[in-house]
Amino acid sequence: MSTIAPSRSSNGAPSDLPVTLGALRATGYAHRTVKDEIRANLIERLSSGDDPFPGIVGFDQTVRPQIERALLAGHDIVLLGERGQGKTRLIRTLVNLLDEWSPVVAGCEINDDPTMPVCARCRRLDAELGDVLPVSWRHRSERYGEKLATPDTSVGDLVGDVDPVKVAEGRTLGDPETIHFGLVPRTNRGIFAVNELPDLAERIQVALLNVLEERDIQVRGYTLRLPLDLLMVASANPEDYTNRGRIITPLKDRFGAEIRTHYPLEVADEVTLLRQEAAMPAVVPQHLLEVVARFTRQVRESPAVDQRSGVSARFAVACAESLSGAALRRAAIRGESDPVARIGDLPGIVPTLRGKVEFDVSEEGREEEILQTLARRAAAETFRSRLGSSDMKDVMNALAAWFDEGNAVETGDIVTAADVLAGIGEVDGLGRLVSALEGSAGESPGVAAACLEFALEGLWLTRRIDKDDADGTITYGIAPA
To answer: Per CATH, the architecture of 58-93+150-260 is what?
Structure first.
């Protein structure tokens, strides 16, 4: 009889978990499928009010209910949506719905359940060892597999192929243990995701038909039926879905649910997404993040932009991160200890965002001009939304009156916050202005200067004062007669 020493997980599994089949059975363990496991855990999350999909923003009333219904129904899912809508992020959160620890036959390539082994190796060991069959434990994070579909992906990559090394060891070609399993069977008893499924060659998509319907795999000419237990989720861009590439009809038919994703529907959701995803080592004030959010929405809605490719959330994230970088640059050059981004930093970073937008061919050569116009429009919208109320009318009038007296103030990408504040002196209602834009977070001089500069930009955009921009220095002054 072969002997294998019981092994413990090297992935931090609790030491009190059973390490043999007999000990596992003694705990009362009962096998359940991945979809049953996800269903039970999702029901528990929904019942307790816990978030089943942490970090997913803007889908609460649209995509989330559809995902929840599909998972509760035990369906495989394909997510359709333009780039940067969070499809992959959403798929990866599904791992949280798996049990934290799952028992497997130690050393099994396809993670067989010790109580119901399916591969030839584990069935042989089960017959030989019985209750002393060694058991190891996998964390939920190890039960997720993902493949970006590319034209060079092969059936062997996904399903498996003959392993020449095992054949060279003396086994016959007809021996099922000579198979090198692909990504799909290696994710058995877990979640397998295919990103950009239409990019997978149609003949390769055929290899997934049995996985989705019959729940088994076929490898070359082997007489092999290997029942798999997994949830399959795929993502696709609708443009690829219908034109450049496509999901073959039999494969589409095997997915239980087809769900459309979308960009955030509300500005507040876009801002929340920015705070969650953008790495901002310097302060980017709330009102400026709102400008970025509105800017992104303006680009998505612009007729000058090819809307079929979409405008990714990465556009907004890169914009916010670049604003943070501009603040750090100013602080490094001028020795500021409180780097805070300001609205005047935005025009300088707009050119760096051109590569993230597909423009209509008729707009060739005007890309930067279009983006700058949309950025100004976003700033004007935010100004009207945040400072256009009757409560702030007297503060705006006081600022405009100061310029009507012939005064001017300079700012720019390397002008410090202290210089901006000193340039305008005492401002009646500055505290109210800062509070209206930043609430209780606006106590620092850097944030105060950012709020003041935003108010000046808004007055210029509404044509109440003049503005001159030359060589990186911005001068706000009186409106021309």
So the answer is: 3-Layer(aba) Sandwich (3.40)
